[in-house]
Each structure stands twice: as C-alpha cells, then as structure tokens.
Amino acid sequence: MKALLSTLIWLGATTGFILSCIAYTQGLIVIPERTEPIAQDLEDRVQIANAQVAGATTTDSVTSDTIETTTIIPGDARVALVHNFLERYNSPLLNEENFANTLVEIADEHEIDFRLLPSIAMQESTLCKATPENSYNCLGLGVHSQGTWRFESYEDNFKAAARILKENYIDIGLTTPEQIMRKYTPSSNGSWAASVNQWMAEMRYDDRQMGRTMREDANLLEFTATTSSETKASAIDEETE
Length: 241
Prior knowledge:
This protein is mainly alpha-helical and about 240 residues long.
C-alpha cells in the first residue's frame, strides 16, 4: 500500500512539473523581470547623471541608481561623486566653496583620474582632517623628519600633488596605485595601495561597501580629461550617423 501511495505521489509531482514546463514555453506563465537597480559602471552612470543635471543651476536631489547628492555642478556627475565622498567622511574641504568642482578641474588640467587626489588625501590625512599644523598638506607631500612642505591653501596643495603625480609618476609609466606606492611610499607593506584602491572604487560606485568589495588595482588612465573627451566625441559621432 505504501509503495502504491509513493508511486501515485511521484506521478502527480512529475505530471505537475511537465505541465508547468509546457505552460511556460507556451507563454502561459510569465516570470517577473528583475526590477531592483543593477550597479552600472562609472562611465554609464556619469552619462545618465549628466543628462539629468545638464543645464541646471541647483537641485535638491538627483538620483541615478546609487547616486544621490544635494550639491550638483551643472553637467558633470564626477563632481557629484567627489562631493558625496567628501560629505560621507565630513571632510573640512566641504568648507571650501565648490571644492569638489575644484578637484575635478585640477584633475582635468593635469590629465589624471579625478578620483586619485581625493583617494590619496583620504589615505594620508582622512581628507585633510589630520595634517601638519598650518600646512594645508593633505597628501603627505614632503612630510619627513627634516621638515614638512607647507602650502598657502588646500588648492595649492592639490595642484602641486597633481603636477608631481603626473610628471614624476604617471608620465613615466606608473599608472596604478600599486605602482605609484613603490615610489611614493616605498616602506608600505601594500596597505597604502589597497586603501587608495578602496577609496577609488568607493567613488566609482558611490557606495562605501562596494568600495570594500569591488576594489582592484585601478587604471589611472581610465577616467581622465582625455578619455572623457574621447567618450563624448564618440557619442556625438554615433548620434550624427
């Protein structure tokens, strides 16, 4: 009797499965599509945010997947990503007028990745929270026992760092944080590059946790003024074809 009952249950389950497969293939069963946001690459999200804020002067909120900000500089979502990073860690740079925009402008002027300077500043001084007194030195430039480099302003410090990183590192082929670390801070056991890569990933995805889980040795030539111009030119060419 038990064997007969087990056989009937098995036949019923098998028949149900077969009928479900037939219904699915005939379009009678529809599986709901995924609706939650999927993380996009920085370049895609920048283009989306640019379209949303183009021509705006101010906005209370702009959201694109994980992008949210209360301060937007028209037409450039990179500024929003940097601003969010400064705000997330309550950087004193927020007291400087439109400093996120200044950081992006400095990066573009020297053709370096816009995330590099804020990431090094985060590693060296927690975004300028811990600097030698009256030095404005957020990036650890010339900090040693013989003395410390001092600057007139945060902007002067970041401009000097951008020039040094471009001419003495990137232009000679040191184009990842791990490669830069070997010259910038050779005594590091690898933690310096790991941290800089984490902060760069955090800005890429505008998310602290994704910075921890998605970090990799960043290509510092990936998001520069040159590559941004090439991307925009390519998009314009596609539209006109």
